[in-house]
Specification:
single chain; alpha+beta; two-stranded antiparallel sheet; 2 strands; about 10% strand; AsaB-like
């Protein structure tokens, strides 16, 4: 199995609310590195992941949107497709809030993002959905 080095916030390295700058490596906390296994989800079978067991689901859902370069096309028709998919796959859903997306563009000489962030705290999601 492949392994990778992941950096986590050292919970003993700060007081108060932790903060970090996005474009420069400046934070109120230290990081600690940990080696973790990285698995190819496809080997486990994508149908084995669900919101009930993994906190996310993986679905094959071809889209009418092909380019993903026009913000209006993503926010309009594509968001509608995603909402319809979620309502179909997750019975009982009463509200769908899509609060963020990033259109990736290749820029000559540009560096990749310094940090990846995927998790959202429930209170942050609620605040963005209410906006």
């Amino acid at each position: 199995m492949t392994t990778g080095t992941f950096k986590y916030i050292d919970l003993d390295s700060f007081t108060g609310k932790p903060w970090g700058k996005v474009d420069v490596d400046k934070t109120s906390y230290q990081r600690v590195e940990r080696q973790r296994s990285v698995a190819d989800m496809r080997a486990a079978g994508l149908d084995n992941f669900s919101t009930e067991t993994a906190g996310f689901g993986v679905y094959h859902a071809p889209s009418q949107e092909k380019a993903f370069t026009d913000d209006a096309a993503v926010r309009g028709p594509y968001y509608a497709e995603v909402e319809a998919l979620l309502r179909a796959k997750l019975p009982g859903v009463t509200k769908v809030v899509i609060f963020d997306h990033t259109i990736r563009r290749r820029v000559e000489g540009a560096a990749p993002p310094a940090r990846a962030a995927a998790a959202r705290r429930p209170d942050a999601v609620a605040r963005r959905g209410a906006a």
